[in-house]
Design brief:
70 residues, 4 helices
Length: 70
């Protein structure tokens, strides 16, 4: 099971960085609609088969976000 709520995590990080989904989409060269679809459908970010394999091994998956050092 994926422990994170990627949609909330992403929105919080946007707020922390004073940016928007649309600005992130522009930065990475995609549409705001695609970014929205990704964060709302977590299977596209974390592969469902990978999650199933980790669950079979007795693990949940939790993503950790680490700020890059410049």
């Amino acid at each position: 099971m994926l422990k994170n709520n990627i949609e909330i995590d992403f929105k919080v990080k946007c707020i922390e960085e004073s940016t928007t989904q649309a600005k992130i989409a522009e930065t990475v060269g995609t549409s705001p609609q695609y970014v929205s679809r990704l964060i709302n459908n977590q299977e596209n970010i974390v592969n469902k088969t990978f999650l199933s394999m980790m669950e079979a091994l007795g693990y949940d998956v939790e993503l950790t976000y680490v700020k890059k050092e410049d």
